[in-house]
Amino acid sequence: MKTLLITKGINQKSIGGRELLSKSTARSLSSILSDNLEIFELFKFQKSNLKKILDIPTGHIDGVSHIKIKEILKLISEKDFKIIFLDGSNFGSIAKTIRKNFPELKIIIFFHNVEYRFFLGAFFSKPTLHSLGVLIVNYFAEKFSVNNSDVRICLSKRDSDFLFKTYKRNATHIFPLTMTDNFKENLVIDSQNDEKFILFVGGNFYANMDGIKWFLENVAPFLSIKIKILGRGLKMLKSFDGKNNIEIIGEVDDLSKWYMSCMCVVAPIFNGSGMKTKVAEALMYGRKVIGTEESFAGYEKFQDKLGWICKSADDFIGAIKAAQDQISDPFHEELREIFLKEFSEQSADLRLKKILQ
Q1: Would you tell me which of 162, 211, 255, 295 could form a disulfide with 114, CB atoms 3.0–4.6 Å apart?
Q2: Where are the alpha helices (DSSP H) in the chain?
């Protein structure tokens, strides 16, 4: 059936978890639907503070505006779409308007997070008027999504439970995070990366920054192994660079050589929603993960094989020392097999076919 995918800009250069998942979803839909898929991309734009305040009850965020909604309605009126696939619950005002004008269309919402839960954590981490406004506008947008959708896809049962707790509706489908397989079997590793190290990958948002700062302050001083940290916007971590075997790398074009060089991955994440991209990437490269319960949300089925789960600084210190003793070959074939079966684009294709049917 002819489908319109509405998504955030998927062709911009970015290594964020949301962008990776959006690109993977667009690729899978294109593979399944071919010429029966049309993509409408939304891009963020600058707003005045007054406009941001006025837009709070409308749920207009992440490139959504009255102008863009009119463009979408015009496109739908001109073409014989049967399904509208909204790649994010923050597009709820679009779902609400489409439902009002085209009630016969099937509306599918892909919840990357339960955004209200996610931004509630961001507000408590940094309680400002701005973070409060972001929380409220996301609540309205997500509420519109829940109330105006036929199919609600969540990444995990936990997110589905969050959805019910907040809006009194569950997901209709559980669809774990999937991503493009970037594994390079014959990748040549630079000799400078021969030393053993543990890897953290994560951009500048509250859950990553709160977690890694805690780790660098409470765990790193007690470790002998090198710690390398990659991601966008890590200026706030520069004071740690060079201390206690810590190296702040920052943003890189290709994560492959870093995953292929590390002994294992650390994920000290204590808050958030959805699933953690860094864990799926670790599986892709056959690496063990040392993380928290939050880090393994959505991966519970494989938790025993994945690595170590930690609740305190002492747990992390003990787990990392155990990893140093136990890991002789950092590549674990069984972990890569889990990725291919459960979190690759091929698995996404199979799940999306069932949902679309």
Answers
A1: 162
A2: 17-33, 49-55, 66-78, 92-101, 115-125, 129-147, 157-167, 206-218, 256-261, 277-284, 303-306, 313-326, 333-338, 345-356
Q: Report how far residue 230's alpha carbon sits from residue 74's, in angstroms, rounded to the nearest whole number.
A: 43
Q: What is the dihedral of CA 225, 226, 230, 235, to 10 degrees?
A: 120
Q: Can you give the pLDDT at residue 191?
A: 42
Residue 87 phi/psi, 5-degree rounding, is -90, 70
Asked whether residue 76 carries a pLDDT value surpassing 90, the answer given is: yes
Find how far residue 215's CA is from the centre of its chain.
21
Kindly give the pairing relationship between strand 197-201 and strand 226-230.
Answer: parallel
Domains and CATH numbers, the chain: 3-175 (3.40.50.2000), 191-341 (3.40.50.2000)
59 neighbors 109 (Cβ within 8 angstroms): no
The upper half-sphere exposure of residue 28, i.e. CA atoms within 13 Å in the direction of its Cβ, equals 28
Q: Which residues pair with 248 in a beta bridge?
A: 229
pTM summary value? 0.87
DSSP 8-class letter at 103: T
The per-residue pLDDT for range 238-291, each reduced to its tens digit, is 999 988 899 999 999 889 999 999 999 999 999 888 899 999 999 999 999 999
Provide φ and ψ at 63, rounded to 5°.
Answer: 90, -5
